[in-house]
Specification:
Order of helices and strands: EEEEEEEEEEE
CATH architecture: Sandwich
Radius of gyration: 15 Å
Helix content: under 10%
Number of strands: 11
CATH superfamily: Protein of unknown function DUF4465
Number of domains: 1
Number of helices: 0
Largest sheet: 8 strands, antiparallel
Distance between the termini: 15 Å
């Protein structure tokens, strides 16, 4: 019996334009987003992991979601925030599969600003249909990655 290897996908969002609402742009890869907008951060405290374009939650929302056409077995991203960011995974029926979070990251800079380094958040669970990134303060999301079984 031959085991099927998952297809690994990484999105760096460099093909998006600033202030573009992100929904179905990656549907051909089996994923769609909700509540996300692309930006090029001007605040050096929220730098991108790679490139210059990141996602942030739209409006006053402090969460954004990704939905998989086929269940994923691994999903995550690099997030940048001055407070904790939580990643939660759900199955097709909306059942909780798992959760992980960053650590608070608040080094002080001489001018009183805060700077955050991108932190990797990931969950490895079978049957992930939706992931949600949430915080109580603004955050950026970059280099989103996931694995799909063939």
């Amino acid at each position: 019996m031959e085991l099927a290897s998952p297809r690994l996908i990484r999105l760096d969002f460099e093909d998006l334009t600033a202030f573009e609402r992100v929904n179905d742009q990656y549907r051909h890869m089996g994923i769609r987003f909700s509540g996300a907008i692309a930006i090029e951060p001007s605040n050096p405290g929220f730098r991108a992991k790679s490139g210059s374009t990141v996602l942030i939650p739209m409006g006053n929302l402090m969460s954004l979601s990704a939905y998989f056409d086929k269940p994923s077995c691994w999903a995550g991203a690099f997030v940048c925030s001055t407070r904790i960011v939580v990643l939660t995974a759900y199955d097709r029926e909306g059942n909780f599969l798992g959760q992980t979070s960053t650590v608070a990251n608040q080094p002080s800079l001489p001018d009183g600003q805060s700077e955050s380094s991108p932190q990797q958040l990931e969950l490895n669970r079978h049957g992930i249909a939706k992931v949600e990134f949430h915080s109580y303060v603004p955050f950026t999301l970059d280099d989103f990655f996931f694995a799909l079984m063939p």
